Amino acid sequence: MEIAQRLGNEFSGPLIFDYMWWTLREAHRRGISRLYFLARDGYTLRKVAEQLCNRFGLEIECRYLYCSRKALRTPSWFFIGDEAYEQLFLWGYHVTLKTLLSRGGLTGEERAAVYRECGLRPVDEERPLDRREFDGYAAQIKKSSTFRRSIDRRSRSAYGDTVGYLRQEGLFEQEVVAVVDSGWTGSMQRSLRQLLEFAGYRGKIVGFYFGLYEYPRSAADGEYATWYFNAGGRVRDKVPFCNNLFECLLAAPHGMTAGYRKTEQGYEPVLLPPPRGQELRWIEEQSDVVCRWCSEHGEQIAFDSFDAAARHRDAVCRIKRYMSRPTREEAAYYGSFQFCDDITEAYRMALASEEQRTLLREYSFLRRILRKLTKRSLGGRKAELFWPYGTIAFLNGKKREWYRLNVITWELLKQIIRLR
Question: Is pTM, for the whole model, over 0.85?
């Protein structure tokens, strides 16, 4: 509890507090009276926002919307054309044939049929793929009639209950649907817009995000407002930042939303199993510490005293210190959180660990350039690092500084390329 308390007071609490303070000020300025906090990153955010609304007497309703990339994408696949296959064949940290096909919800029997149709070996379905293999398999699978029929059938089947849930939660009643989420690409807002629009909604959508790495894909998707960084923002704000770690700061004690179903009482989300044991205790402890710190800090400030420049500078300092230069103890604590970047949550891995040090040799700047050019994964290893700075913290002395310099150089190059 001691380290959780300290990190909540020094790091996650201040970051989340300022993000929610900014969000509520923006919503108040725009005359927005309802905010939808998207699961699961919105779990603690909503709690903090409600505290601030009560503290400052704001008439803003904070609702929690159960959803996920999978839950919102699946029912749209049958009407968005080739974009559906773009979503299904996105590269990730840890991809196998099984996880690739599981994104579309294919059963074991259906996967076997696709393998036969494409001439693939089912015995290989659990083996991690490198980027070159992934691209080749994706091209083959996309041509499979069995795969395409399965995707279309599941999408159409999921559509009615999904729209029913969104209608039940009042989204169709709003002239402006305002959502709050961590960010990164803004794809959830796009999927939500596509679903609402196809079902007849003619209002607007605005999203409030901690940060976005990419520009919105289409103006039709609505407005994207960001607090800490956006696609055209300062490179030095993004280099020390780790979005995977930030998502762990916002971890929720319930499972991912896999879809929706109709019951006698209405529509309800279908959730995957929740975290258990020590992981669940850490998540609940972290959320409680953050909410307690935010509640106490909220008593000390006035709603209109928000100084955006000063709060942003403070966030930069905290992110640089705790995300890119954590101590071994801090890396061990946050690194124990389980993470998955795939929409299926077909696997869970530690965010960072001492055992992951063996992967760091592949994180030298020159090796990463070579890997990028050849589209190969880490020397045949099973996964990339979710939080490289965290793994580096388990090293000592000059070796630690050497790898940190290599990661910083790579991140600088990556962000500069993104800006062009």
Answer: yes
